[in-house]
């Protein structure tokens, strides 16, 4: 009997001793972490800490210098297509082609992902992300908030079990950002997926993430519940803790 990897592990993502080196720059320095089912994990850290490099390795866009990445137990170095078919991604710096309509974009990505019953899936996503009125609008003329909703709809097309979100609410107004957070929360509550979320907005991280990882100079310095972690390290807020780590990572060891 074939055991579906989905049922064989409670982790949607397992990263072990992951490294990425560029010449003399160690962008990611031996990090290990997991993302569980129905869990939202925040990947935090100052500019240049290694967040995007980590995400790009998990997406298979960058090859690790060493270490391993498993998605639902499947090693992406060995069974890349199978592992990545369970993953999707949204980021403000990766907008969809602006000369195609919302519908055309969803259709093309759906074909690339080989989504079954694609027309039905697109209709459901247009409804879920309040995009029905924009189905024939070119993505390039949509507002930032509308484009983010299309990017998220695209990211949900293949019903991913691992969703990577790189600053999904950057440049959104507070009401739209809250709406997006609610939709991501619904995704983790309803389906069997997990989310790796990067953001520089500590208020948002505290509200949405079940667990956070603090990266600094390519290493994980801290890990824990964003609501309790600041007090554990003598800080009053996640933002204060973030600033301490960004400015003076070694100071934490003295707390
Ligand atoms: N292609 C590359 N060649 C050389 N160095 C690189 C390359 N890509 C990233 N780096 C370096 O690796 C480090 C980590 O970069 P990365 O983009 O992962 O950081 P980040 O945490 O995502 O930062 P930000 O919050 O600014 O987006 C940085 O020092 C960066 O300069």
UniProtKB/TrEMBL annotation:
The keyword Cell division does not apply. GO terms for molecular function: ATP binding; ATP hydrolysis activity. Pfam families: ABC_tran. InterPro entries: AAA+_ATPase, ABC_transporter-like_ATP-bd, ABC_transporter-like_CS, ABC_transporter_ATP-binding, P-loop_NTPase. It comes from the Bacteria. Keywords: ATP-binding, Nodulation, Nucleotide-binding, Transport. Gene3D superfamilies: P-loop containing nucleotide triphosphate hydrolases. SUPFAM superfamilies: P-loop containing nucleoside triphosphate hydrolases. Residues 13-242 form the ABC transporter domain. PANTHER family: ABC TRANSPORTER ATP-BINDING PROTEIN, ABC TRANSPORTER ATP-BINDING PROTEIN NATA. Belongs to the ABC transporter superfamily. This is ABC transporter related-protein. It comes from Pedosphaera parvula (strain Ellin514).
């Amino acid at each position: 009997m074939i055991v579906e990897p989905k049922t064989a592990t409670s982790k949607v993502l397992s990263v072990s001793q992951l490294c990425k080196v560029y010449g003399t720059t160690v962008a990611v320095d031996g990090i290990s972490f997991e993302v569980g089912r129905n869990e939202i994990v925040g990947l935090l850290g100052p500019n240049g800490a290694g967040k995007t490099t980590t995400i790009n390795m998990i997406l298979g866009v960058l090859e690790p210098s060493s270490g391993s990445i498993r998605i639902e137990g499947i090693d992406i170095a060995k069974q890349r297509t199978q592992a990545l078919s369970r993953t999707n991604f949204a980021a403000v710096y990766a907008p969809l082609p602006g000369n195609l309509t919302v519908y055309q974009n969803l259709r093309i990505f759906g074909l690339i992902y080989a989504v079954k019953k694609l027309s039905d899936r697109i209709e459901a996503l247009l409804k879920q992300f309040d995009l029905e009125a924009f189905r024939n609008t070119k993505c390039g003329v949509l507002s930032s908030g509308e484009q983010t909703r299309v990017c998220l709809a695209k990211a949900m097309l293949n019903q991913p079990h691992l969703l990577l979100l790189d600053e999904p609410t950057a440049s959104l107004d507070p009401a739209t950002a809250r709406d997006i957070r609610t939709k991501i929360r619904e995704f983790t509550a309803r389906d069997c997926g997990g989310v790796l979320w990067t953001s520089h907005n500590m208020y948002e991280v505290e509200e949405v993430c079940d667990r956070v990882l603090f990266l600094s100079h390519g290493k994980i310095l801290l890990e824990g519940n964003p609501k309790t972690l600041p007090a554990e390290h003598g800080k009053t807020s996640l933002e204060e803790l973030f600033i301490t780590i960004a400015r003076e990572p070694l100071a934490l060891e003295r707390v």
